[in-house]
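Narrative of accomplishments. A recurring question from our advisory board has been how the design workflow behaves on a single, concrete structure rather than in aggregate. To address it, we present the structure tokens for one chain from the evaluation set, followed by the sequence designed for it. No filtering or post-editing was applied between the two.
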């Protein structure tokens, strides 16, 4: 394989990891809050990234990602923990089947106004992960003197993962909303924990692979909390009956 081919493959594989995290956030938020304003926020994040890459160029590699991860991770934690808590309470009350497509969404419907929460979450997810992709592309491409193939590899990863995410949009929308809210809350809390601690200087032993362990941890914790919530509800009903 030529030097250009190696650079392209390297940036493609490295960018796929970040792109999966980006699309996971966008699809999860879109399925929970609606896709119209979520995609608007994602598009705004992409526009910001294009401008940053165009203006900063190779200097982009020198941007301190730590403070940015801390700020965005903390914000994701704030949103994620809210959805995590609501998902636990609703699944405990309704079961994992929950409500399906007929359940009304929280807040104003999409047609009634701008959903700033959906747009903001999508914007944060796309801008942070996209910035990491940009740093990978610029760093690898500049160091190898193959910036063109590096850009192609990063763009190909975004297009491929984005297409897969869009294809899965329909099946995700059929998931019961109360269960979906718990899933998305778990994901946002996991990503937020990972980024916030990285921003504080914590070195994860397995890098991005540790996000999976965070997902397992928060998922198992949610099951425990659901059991405790159901037990508390049952005891409260027994007290009322007596």
């Amino acid at each position: 394989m030529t030097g250009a081919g190696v650079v392209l493959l390297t940036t493609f594989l490295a960018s796929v990891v970040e792109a999966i995290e980006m699309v996971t956030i966008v699809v999860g938020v879109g399925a929970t809050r609606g896709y119209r304003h979520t995609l608007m926020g994602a598009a705004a994040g992409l526009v910001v990234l294009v401008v940053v890459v165009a203006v900063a160029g190779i200097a982009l590699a020198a941007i301190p990602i730590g403070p940015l991860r801390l700020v965005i991770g903390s914000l994701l934690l704030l949103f994620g923990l809210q959805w995590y808590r609501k998902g636990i309470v609703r699944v405990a009350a309704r079961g994992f089947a929950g409500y399906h497509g007929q359940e009304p969404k929280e807040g104003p419907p999409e047609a009634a106004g701008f959903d700033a929460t959906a747009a903001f979450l999508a914007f944060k997810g796309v801008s942070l992960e996209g910035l990491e992709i940009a740093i990978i592309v610029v760093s690898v491409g500049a160091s190898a003197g193959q910036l063109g193939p590096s850009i192609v590899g990063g763009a190909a990863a975004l297009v491929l993962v984005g297409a897969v995410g869009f294809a899965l949009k329909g099946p995700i929308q059929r998931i019961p909303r109360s269960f979906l809210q718990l899933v998305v809350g778990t994901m946002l809390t996991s990503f937020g924990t990972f980024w916030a601690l990285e921003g504080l200087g914590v070195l994860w032993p397995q890098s991005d692979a540790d996000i999976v362990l965070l997902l397992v941890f928060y998922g198992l914790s949610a099951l425990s909390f659901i059991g405790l919530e159901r037990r508390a509800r049952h005891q409260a009903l027994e007290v009322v009956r007596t």
